[in-house]
Amino acid sequence: MRSSVIVFPGSNCDRDIAVALEKMQFKNQMVWHKETILPKSDLIVIPGGFSYGDYLRSGAIAGKSLIIEEVIKAANSGCLILGVCNGFQILTETGLLKGTLLRNKNLKFINKDVNIKVMNNHTRFTSKYETDQVLKINIAHNEGNYFTDQKHLEELKNQNLIGFKYCDDKGNINDEANPNGAIENIAGIFNKNKNILGMMPHPERMIDKLISNNDGLNLFSSLLN
Asked: What structural domains and CATH numbers belong to the chain?
């Protein structure tokens, strides 16, 4: 399976995601943001980091990069798109995903491991997980507070487009388990066609038991499957 990782000035998780993809035997290429042609890809990843130093707002400038036009074309033709952390922010800036990522509720940068619950395992990103499975995944963000309007929130719920929610270690979804104030504890969402996933937690950091855990591994094995 062929993958492409988009690299912006300020990206700092691009190599991490490349390591995860290559571990799972993806044929991966790194694509600089000024390119105007995408390699033929089954999966495009927009990685975490601080693209363009988060000037204006997170993901705003990256959303206007040259390569993004090709990413949008690929997404609209059905290519799988994964946006992690800053990648999720960029996807909302492009309009490929609805909603926005606001400042964390405590107005501070958060870097810690959290629990998230798998809300929908009937997608190409999550099929190797069990529904309601609890994962421990790292977050590292300043703007992870997902917000959207009521109409879109109902659409997310009615069409099963919520991928993950923040929870405690027993799977309870409550305010205490919500690290950033995201509406209804939402940690990741799909588009209507479920070929695009944006998520704030970093699955690429959880692929090796020796350095963390391997709770993120099944996201990549789901994609291969």
From this structure: 2-224 (3.40.50.880)
